[in-house]
Design goal:
four-stranded antiparallel β-sheet, 14 strands, eight-stranded mixed β-sheet, single chain, alpha/beta, 11 helices, Rossmann fold
Amino acid sequence: MLLPQPFKDRYSQLVDDPETFFSILEVLLPKSFRVNTLKSTSEEVKESFERYGIGLKQMDWYPDAFVSELPDIGSTLEHFSGAIYFQELVSMLPPLLVRKELETTKRVLDGCAAPGSKTTQLAALMDNKGTITANDLSYSRIRALKFNIEKTGTLNTVITNRDLLSFPQMEFGVIILDVPCSAEGTIRKNAELFDCWSIAEVEKHSKLQKKLIIKAFDMLSPGGTMVYSTCTFAPEENEMVVEHLLKNRPAQVEPIEIPGFKTSKPVTEWAGQEFDSQVSKTLRIWPHHNDSGGFFLAKVTK
């Protein structure tokens, strides 16, 4: 895979080890999955996979997360029955950041939910209690969301097929906003990504993301918590979107800790713009640090 030179020029100035970073982008992403605790336990899955002769690596930072180098896990009974759910490691992080909030929150919104990875994880963390509204704009993706909700035994979720920007004004104690993005961080599983990559594409997504984060914040209950996330490296889609929120709403950015998972500091200035000091509480995840995809996280309270 040939990385575009503008991409390399752009991110070599942000990442700690450009050579290692660019090298790992050409390596296929390891197969990871999450144990669906609505149907099984990590110990039961480990015992079954040991009988199958499939080696697993359990994540210290999230005992229900596993990595396997073998593709055979897709043909196991556990996958067929919904006891495990294929999910990128970084995709598991947003719900984990609100575990404490989920203990007391009755109403949760997954604003861009399909195909359901975070929705079904939230349901498992909530033990199918409370109510999750899983919304997505794309009807075709809604079908995948519905399938995964049914397969995993998720019962506390309603599906809505709306443009989030025109979503009825409601209040939620927790909102997960994993927005559409340029998806640069998924290159390890999508080699065709750079066929349409451009700065113009990044800027187009940034404009939408700024609207979405404002809309989502306005639907937070007083004292509520929102996790904003992307799977891209672009500051325009990450720190600059959080900066936009801070300039336009009374938001507070909360510090994030993920013990056992290596994270990096965010960008504090870009394109001649210096960001609010609160932006420094957000996190970046570079693929070469955890052998994962790329990701950005911000935890915001109202």
